[in-house]
Design a protein that fits this description.
Blueprint: E1 2-7, H1 10-17, H2 20-27, E2 32-37, E3 50-51, E4 61-62, H3 64-72, E5 81-91, H4 94-100, E6 105-110, E7 115-116, E8 126-129, H5 139-150, E9 183-184, E10 187-188, H6 198-216, H7 218-227
Parallel strand pairs: 1-2, 1-6, 4-7, 5-6, 5-8
Antiparallel strand pairs: 3-4, 9-10
Helix pairs in contact: 6-7
Length: 229
């Protein structure tokens, strides 16, 4: 998988890509990252990438030109899956992450300033928001997408850190987990996890997933039950 990020602030992106699981994915050549500063594609001598909005209004608007020229500089950009980070996009979730992991080539475009020229939308495949709030730019959203997708690339985590039972992957929240000590200040690990009966353990875990989802995210449980009738 190749992931390209178009941003004005490469220094925000690089530290995470060079850390932890994302670094391991690169070291194992399971994913290739590319960071492009679209300011380098500005067509004016001052290298500005924004301008005042037509019709008036507060703030500055990101121009279409540097985005277009940065995008078209990428090899095979036509067949890549192009994502624009914007609060007006569809809300990101695990279901969408599960689809993105099958894309061979992702391009994430990070907006900035007050907004962006609406014509930028003509060059992307999907608009994504990571939540109902506004950030100063799309970099944090891009990093969230990258982290959630790359961890599911085969070979990145492996069996020991399998994501199959993670919250949201199955449609339910994760079950409670415990490690040593067995008794901490009177708070004990449930006995079912200590008897070695994996059938009972699996049953307990599923029950706890449903119980926890019902308590904390009844909307998810309702969707899960509809999909598993």
């Amino acid at each position: 998988m190749k992931i390209t990020v178009l941003t004005l602030f490469p220094e925000m992106i690089k530290p995470l890509l060079n850390s932890s699981i994302l670094k391991r994915a690169q070291d194992q050549q399971l994913v290739d990252f590319e960071i492009i500063n679209y300011r380098d594609f500005s067509t004016n001598k001052h290298k500005t990438v924004d301008d005042t909005p037509y019709g008036g209004g507060a703030g500055m608007v990101l121009s279409v030109e540097p985005i277009y020229y940065a995008l078209t500089s990428i090899e095979n950009y036509e067949t890549a899956y192009k994502i624009l980070l914007t609060p007006q996009g569809k809300t990101y979730n695990q279901e969408l992450a599960n689809k993105l992991v099958y894309k061979e080539n992702l391009i994430l475009i990070c907006g900035h300033y007050e907004g962006f020229d609406d014509r930028i939308r003509d060059y992307v495949d999907v608009e994504i928001s990571i939540g109902d709030y506004v950030l100063t730019g799309g970099e944090i959203g891009a990093l969230a997408i990258i982290d959630s997708v790359v961890r599911m690339v085969p070979g990145v985590i492996g069996d020991e850190g399998s994501y199959i039972n993670d919250s949201f992957y199955s449609g339910l929240l994760d079950y409670p987990q415990y490690t040593k000590p067995r008794d901490f200040k009177g708070k004990k690990v449930p006995e079912v996890l200590l008897n070695g009966n994996h059938k009972l353990i699996d049953k307990w875990r599923k029950e706890k997933q449903i119980e926890r989802t019902k308590q904390r995210r009844p909307d998810l449980l309702e969707k899960y039950q509809k999909n598993n009738k």
